[in-house]
Prior knowledge:
- The protein has 758 residues and is mostly helical.
- It has four domains: 2-80 and 496-557; 88-159 and 413-477, no CATH class; 181-364; 601-757, Rossmann fold.
- 77% of the residues lie in helices and 5% in strands.
- The chain has 19 helices and seven strands.
- It has helices at residues 2-64, 66-82, 86-112, 122-137, 140-178, 180-258, 260-266, 295-334, 343-364, 366-420, 426-471, 476-482, 486-510, 513-520, 526-589, 601-624, 665-686, 706-720, 734-738; strands at 629-634, 646-651, 656-659, 694-698, 725-729, 742-748, 751-757.
- It has a three-stranded antiparallel β-sheet with strand order 1-2-3. A two-stranded parallel sheet has the order 4-5.
- A hairpin with a 4-residue loop joins strand 2 and strand 3.
- Helix 2 (66-82) packs antiparallel against helix 13 and helix 5 packs antiparallel against helix 10 (366-420).
- It is flat.
- The chain starts with a helix and ends with a strand.
Amino acid sequence: EAVLEWAAIARSAAREHLDIAHTAVAEAENRQLAARRALDAERELARLQERYAKTLRRAEALEERRPEHDRCQEQLERARKADRVAPALELREEAERAYRVASDVLDRTRERLPAELADSGADRLAELEGRFRQELGTLEAARKAEVRSASIDEERVRLNRDARADDEIVREADAWLADWDTTRAELTQRIETAQEAATRAEQLAGQLAPARLRLDAARRRDALATDVQDAREALTAARERALAAHESWLGLRERRLRDIAAELAAGLVAGEPCTVCGSAEHPAPASPGDGHVDRATEEKALAVHRFAEEARTGAEHALTLVRERQAAARREAQGDDSAAPSVAELHSLVDRLSGEHAEARRLAAGTHAAREALAVAEREHAKRVEQRQEARNRTAARTSQREALDREQAGLEGQITAARGESESVAAHADRLSRRVALLADAAEAVRAEQDAAQRRKEADDRLSDAAFRAGFDTPQAAAATLLGGAAQRDLQHRVDAWQAEAAAVADRRTERDAREAAERPAAQAAAAESAHETAEWLLREAASARAAARERCAELDRLSGRAAEEVRRLGPVRQEYERVARLAGLTAGTSADNERKMRLEAYVLAARLEQVAAAATARLQRMSSGRYTLVHSDARTGGRRAGLGLHVVDAWTGSERDTSTLSGGETFFASLALALGLADVVTEEAGGVRLDTLFIDEGFGSLDDQTLDEVLDVLDSLRERDRSVGIVSHVADLRRRIPARLEVVKDRHGSTVHHRL
Length: 758
């Protein structure tokens, strides 16, 4: 309930904070909006003032560039006038270049003419060209005859070369055919030898395979001899192990049969009939003697014996198999021989047959090659005979062909001699005439070209002068100096256009009313407005953050309040159960007001046992103290401690009950001893009769007087009467006399020594 009340208070406070945060955000938004508007106004004022200032600066820069603009405008107008003269100038320059080229060609051509023709006109040169062309036409037949004569000489050279080649073919064929009979006989003999070797190889192959099988069998025979010996030894060992296992099993069986009565007695059940005699009473069952063998031990020995027998049978079977394999290998290695050959003998036989077989196969492998060589030789023989006959036929044909060429060459010689004159050949004479004709034609053409170029240059000069006058220039040279290229004119036009565009833009800017009015106002304070706007935005963010935190806090408190209500509802039964368990726990722990003695539950239970222990201890304590002391249980609280497990002694001499801490040292010892013995008696009773047969008492006897010591020892002796062993650890010398059976421990510098005294 307190939690729910606290949650309601926290939710109410959180909602109040949220309402305050909403109000703060609204105020911050209004301030931020006002600051934003002020900032936009200051920025717009600064922009207009800067725009007007830039316009003034641009106007000043424009006025500074006005002289350059005027110069470019004037230069552009003169260049455009000169453009009307440009075609005439280009035509004049082209005519001048053509005249110079024609003049150079004419000069080079006149240098190649003879001195008497260097100053001749075009008509004279053309006349000489026609005369030499006519003479050149008469040499055409002689030139063809000279070409035919040269081809006849080449044919003679070819015929001589072919004759030498055919003579060489005939000589080589005769030399090769001279050895034909011997070559054919050798190749035939090679074929016969190879065929005989093939037959021999087949015979040796039939002998080699059985020999290899016998060699493998001999090797297996020798290897199996070792296996036979190993199998014999294994059989001997298996037989010995089987015999030993059999003897061991028989010995254990005999020992078990001797003690079979004890084994049967172990299975007897009180009230159940005996399996041997049928009696339900078993007055004297036999007990097993030393080294008794049970049924499991005998069965284990029997299993070992059977396993050893199986191993022996397996060893005998393995020896039989190895012997059979050795006998089979021995028969296979012996073959048809009367005596068994050794591995070395069979190996030598296989090597000899392998060598002979390899040699026969090598010789037989040459059969195909020998036959192929004979076929190749026969084809070569036919080819040589055919080549020799063809060479002889070509030699006869060349003789008649050479005679016809000689007759034709004799007819051409006269025609060629008459036509070549003083030249070494008709072709050389015709080439000289051709060069003269070409030179005269070039010279005539160069003279005419130079005259035409001079006329065109004069006409171009006239047109240029007229065009310069019409364009307003005094001379053609003035027009040429003013002429500009397309790139230069475009650059000037770009400069002029740029200046005019800038002037128009400046004029438009200066007419803007808002910029002019802004320039008349004080300078804009954009930085201060920016700072105020940033502050307003920061305040808005802070307010929004506080509102979000308040909203989140409200949502979280609502969630936690619901959860707390649910948990309170669920904890109602648990709380009731807790209160009940807490009261019970306080009662059992001794802390509850309902527990008047402030005693724990376990102490309460142990108090009952302690009363039993005190009663059992009193029986011995009275004997040790001559009936003076009695131990009683006390549940009184002492010293602020809880009650329940206290012990007091009742002194019969004074009749008072007092705490055990008031006893003297000796009285405390035998009271403790009596309490320990009483505890042992109670434990024995609670354990179902299981006795504590051994008890050790360490020290404490030195604090007793002689009479008390005698009484204590009498009590301990009474314990021995019940077959208990009592051990006393003490340094009291008088106990050596009273206790004859003891162990004495004597220590010296070399260690401790134990002596047994009876």
